[in-house]
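SUBJECT: A protein chain and its fold
Encoding: whole-number codes for local backbone shapes
Chain under study, with its fold:
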Amino acid sequence: MKSVMSKPPLALAVVLMMAGSAWAKVPAAEAERLGKDLTCNGAIKAGNKEGTIPEFSGKWSGAPAGTDFVKSSGKHPVDYYADEKPVLVITAENMEKYGDKLSPGLKAMFQKYPKTFKIPVYTGHRDFRYPDEVCAVVKKNALEAEVADGGMSVKGYMGGIPFPIPKDGNEAMWNNLIPARAYTESIIRDMGNVLSDGSITWGRMENNNLDMTSNPANRGKPIEGVMAYSMSRGLLPEREKGGVTVSSEPLNFKKDKRLAWSYDAGTRRVRQVPEYGFDQPMVGTGGKLTIDSDRLFNGSPERYNWKLNGRHEMYIPANTYKIHQPTVKYKDLLTPQHANPDFMRYELRRVWVVEGTLKEGYRHLYGKRVMFLDEDTGHAVMGDMYDARGQLWQFALINYYFSPDTNAWHAGTSFYHDLNSGSYMAYNMFQERQTGPVLNKGNLTPAMYTPQAARELGN
């Protein structure tokens, strides 16, 4: 009779961890910090010792009293800080002084455009807070949520970020995937592909997005089923007019895949899109956006190893109401090489730095991508994308602002810079449109995202 050797304790622990396929939860004592020295979303409540990052006040929830706000109307956002002026302007001449708080992408922008690129830095504000019901979900997630299935799913509850105190890159990236945000969004977005000579190729797209994790009816329910539905209909350029794509996004990428169907206006046929997502080029963006680079990263995390590189103070776009005013004209905003700095607003804030390195055996245009997640929200606000040789290729940023429609932060106009060609994509513009994003109107349902719905919309 053969004897069976028992596994050494360390090996046994590894086997058990792999069998469970989930990361450890936050201890109760650590979760108790939420709402005390940490905000309910896990940010450090105190400012920094220099006073250049303010203490979190959270004095406003929803629209501040006396402001011009009509819920779910699509009105352009009110600029609550319209009277403020920059307290500092970083240029190529003085960037070394602030280099420890600049991302590699921002430094690359100074190096490529030393005469024109600037960072206007404003007084920091941390004035808005999430509703109590969102904070309650986040607190519950802190105690119970786990990354499972080798990073491909999450066990937790819908309605707030799952990991307010992230311990690794997988947890931080899931915060970016399923934060509190608009649960319905309808918008006609303009896009400008600004070439190196300053000429612009225009695109326009109608989008209707339904986020199931932020639906108030699902708040506090287990994270399962469908994450989100999306519909996009091409309006410009003319060759893409009438094309429609509908897609659905799962919450468990181990069990399910992102599914998409596309209606072709020329053939009047609907077909399922094979392997939708990842580095497929997004329609109308001149190849500067991949499907998975909208909001800097979305979709299945399976192709990358995600590493958390800590929390750092950095200059990032914040409270970006100025750029989204209806008085902003595209001809003034879209200057050659990069957006007009006069419309930008940066603040010094703390960010989580997350590095994704392409796994062996997988392919993607980006061999590495580094994301900078605002600690107050969990949203990725800046990103550096590297090619397969490890060279910095693209730098992107998103102008987020707090929306009273959602009582959360909303992704506004974003810019994706090709550092090789000197061109950039201005994405998700609505400044010149009569109506901006219509948020949380509650007028979208899953039945609107079927192949038949795509055919009817295209016709």
About this structure: The mean pLDDT is 94.
